[in-house]
Specification:
By secondary structure, the chain is an all-alpha fold. The protein contains 23 helices and no strands. 74% of the residues lie in helices and 0% in strands.
Length: 459
């Protein structure tokens, strides 16, 4: 391995460990890592041959490298989508949608489970943080439901209905995070890394259509299968539907701002799906945000105070930079060459299956989807690229589609999982058991159903 690659890899691993342990906020750690590599670029980024070239300006090139993530269109796309999430919260539209679903589907526990999953899926295209969506919008509503049935946290009564409802949020956020490129922040990072690594561009529509067959099957089967494997003691009741009905009366009729937001959401969705050649997804998002400001759905002060959006913006930008640095320093080239010798003789399909499974189940070692994506995705892509005959479009799409569904595997796999587990309704042994079962089912569905359809579609 080149000396600068060793040095950069050391900083990168230190960054990942820091983001997992969080002695200070994770974004601050990635920001510091970029700063260290920019200042010490002669040791971390550039080879001796480059530094000996009199026309090579290390100071200029290192600063250019350190700032390029902030000009990424995908990073700005996720920032714009965060403002969508803010508008859902400010107008109350997100809460209204959730209550309507509960009102009409809450009389039976199984249909209520479906309602929870569908709510998450409906909010996902415009909420790029599954923590904000599931943890900030869906969870505050659903946590009010178990006490209506005398089902309480950290109590044997949690199995009456509370445990099942909480697990449905895990199922919902996992499926919805993989359904849309804007359904989870690491998805945006993954698209950027795929483009930089293989030159393959995964559009919003490509992502959606690639996961749609698997997504529909999982939406239909997962709530029912959870009902069988983790059956609640209470299966019928009308209290929750009545409660949702009263809550809707309390918040009143739909407002003009909510109607305006619905119109902007529909326009954005149409432009994303059918007019990508005329206007980029990022431009659509920024246009929608501008119209929100003009129509006073959100105010500029609301945006400047929305620390979550700015924090994610900086975090994604710096992670994109650091992941790109693995290639810039020479680490990826060295690692892919080394690994390709060990995978020599494997068929392309076997190689893809091994790499996707390795990437997916390695999440047991991570407490952050973003850290997992930034750390392993460039490496897995590099290995695939180094094996002759591997179709990189298939590998890339399967890898990125697996990011959301891996969030069900452990209590710490993703932000909403931590919140749901912390509520005390799902016991540790049940969470690990269900996570293992559904983790296997989700990846099996992607490889056994999604992959063959993807092959037909792409080729």
């Amino acid at each position: 391995m080149p000396p600068q690659a060793w040095h950069f890899f050391a900083v990168f691993i230190a960054m990942v460990i820091g983001m997992i342990l969080e002695p200070i906020p994770a974004t601050a750690i990635s920001f510091i890592a970029v700063t260290i590599c920019v200042i010490g670029s002669k040791y971390f980024l550039f080879s001796a041959e480059e530094l000996m070239n009199p026309d090579f300006n290390a100071r200029k090139e290192s600063l250019k490298w350190g700032l390029e993530g902030f000009s990424s269109s995908t990073v700005w796309l996720v920032f714009g989508a965060f403002i969508f999430a803010l508008s859902y919260d400010i107008t109350g539209l997100g809460r209204r949608i959730a209550l309507i679903m509960v009102k009409f589907m809450g009389r039976h526990t199984l249909t209520l489970g479906y309602a929870i999953v569908i709510i998450d899926v409906l909010l996902a295209p415009f909420t790029p943080s599954n923590t904000a969506r599931t943890g900030g919008t869906v969870f505050p509503i659903i946590r009010n439901l178990p006490p209506l049935y005398n089902s309480f946290a950290n109590d044997p009564s949690s199995r009456k209905i509370g445990g099942y409802l909480m697990w449905m949020m895990v199922i919902g956020t996992s499926i919805s995070s993989s359904m849309f490129v804007t359904g989870s922040a690491p998805n945006i990072l993954a698209v950027e890394l795929v483009h930089k690594s293989s030159g393959f561009n995964i559009s919003w529509l490509t992502w959606f259509l690639a996961f749609l067959p698997v997504g529909i099957i999982l939406i239909v089967l997962a709530p029912w299968l959870s009902y069988v494997l983790y059956k609640p003691e209470i299966t019928h009741s009308k209290e929750v539907a009545d409660w949702a009905k009263e809550e809707l009366k309390t918040i009143g009729k739909i407002t003009s701002k909510e109607i305006t937001l619905i119109v902007l959401v529909l326009i954005s969705l149409v432009l994303w799906m059918f007019f990508e050649d005329e206007i980029s997804p990022t431009s659509v998002c920024l246009l929608a945000v501008s119209l929100m400001i003009i129509t006073q759905i959100v105010k500029w002060n609301d945006i400047t105070k929305y620390s979550t959006a700015w924090n994610t913006f900086v975090n994604l930008a710096t992670l994109v930079i650091m992941a790109n640095g693995l290639t810039r320093s020479g680490f990826i080239g060295w690692f892919s060459t080394m690994m390709s010798t060990h995978m020599d003789g494997f068929s392309p399909n076997l190689t893809i299956a091994i790499l996707v499974l390795l990437f997916y189940f390695a999440h047991y070692l991570f407490a952050s989807l973003s850290a997992h994506t930034a750390t392993l995705l460039p490496v897995i892509l590099a290995i695939g690229k180094s094996v002759p005959g591997v179709p990189m479009d298939e590998l890339s799409i399967l890898l990125v589609l697996s990011i959301g569904i891996m969030g069900c595997q452990t209590p710490y796999a993703t932000g909403p999982g931590v919140i749901i587990y912390g509520s005390g309704y799902v016991k540790s042994k049940d969470f690990w058991r269900l996570g293992g079962i559904f983790g296997f089912i989700f990846i099996a569905a992607l490889l056994c159903i999604g992959w063959p359809i993807l092959k037909l579609w792409l080729h």
